[in-house]
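User: Hi! I'm working on a homework problem where we have to compare a predicted structure to a textbook description. Could you give me the structure for the chain below?
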Amino acid sequence: MNAVVIAVLAMLILSLLRVNVVLALIAGALIGGLTGGLSIEKTIEVFTGGLGGSAEVALSYALLGGFAVAISKTGLPNLMVDWIVGMIGKNGESKAKTYSKAIIVILILMMAIFSQNLIPIHIAFIPILIPPLLIVFNELKIDRRLIASVLTFGLTAPYILLPVGFGGIFHDILATNMADSGMEIDMGDIPAAMLLPVAGLVVGLLIAIFVSYRKPRIYQDHQVVQVEKSEYSKMGIIFSIVAIVAALAAQLYFGSMIIGALAGILVVYASGAIKWREADNLLTEGMKMMAFIGFVMLAAFGFADVLKETGHVETLVAQAADAIGNNKGLGALAMLVVGLLVTMGIGSSFSTIPIIATIFVPLSLQLGFSPMATIAIVGTAAALGDAGSPASDSTLGPTAGLNADTQHNHIWDTVVPTFVHYNIPLIIFGWIAAMVL
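Assistant: Happy to help. Predicted structure tokens:
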């Protein structure tokens, strides 16, 4: 059996059994390493060596958590909550609540989409925006699995389709690696080729909104550090906006989320919204909020390094190619499923492209797929697994915001819903794209 398949399945099964994701990743790495022929000592060595690769990511998320709490003290989130509460309807009519739910879902979806392309801050907005809104979600009895699905859609679909922000990076990696593997393509063709797969994501989102999580769900009103009432003033709101702009500008200029978060925190300090004697405790609380993501990302990097060390990632891709023969339909399906397994193992759709392109591009040429169909196959295969993976920041980010009051389970309330609603349609619509383009 292939070590990648065994390790990913072990990690997923343990996660579904409510074993902590970090422990599931460590156990999966050990099982994968031993299955792949590594000794226990070598597996541990490679795993621990891989932890350093995500140190910057972990520190970035910790500082973003601190920045989120700092922003909350300016009163901006409370202003947003008061504004949204005002839309709910004073006499609680069902019609008013329906309109409010629709407005909230649309605003969150727009913010998630903007975070990938227009304002490329990725998941940094979630701990700022979502925790203060939990009390509003509770009032409207919104199923948080719906919000998780909306957020994850906004974190994945835009970079797959649109060639700006993170999408520009994804498209550039795709075009470069396809060219290196023997197929020159025009980057302008990528959005057209990925239109059908993204349509699958849209179908999944609509099913989540109008079918799966349409019914009300009851939550308790628990006090959360981020939603404690902070008085807001015009000056506080101005400084909070300046802090967000400063954080974004610093992140874009220096290419570092760490510097961006630090710049934002310093602006809030300068505003006087946080007193020096309170700063340590508040920032520590914020870091705790995002620490879970940091530890999962640390473990995910170690997990990925162990799988790479076994050599079974390339073996899995090659075995799939050998089993396909000349069957185009089977070939497209096999490549998509392998992409799903590799991305869930590696933890990044961006890092999956170089691994699969070297085999999938020549195989697509051999099977007679057009360049557009090949773009759809490789692009979809890489994107599969980003939504629905326990170790992906596209699922970790929504959980960090929605679980601020400990009423949202990462696996069953974020990972499983997003896996079902996005990976299955992606495979179906990606396969259709491969066959018709």
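For your comparison, note the following. Residues 243 and 264 are 4 Å apart (CA to CA). The mean pLDDT is 83. Good luck with the assignment!
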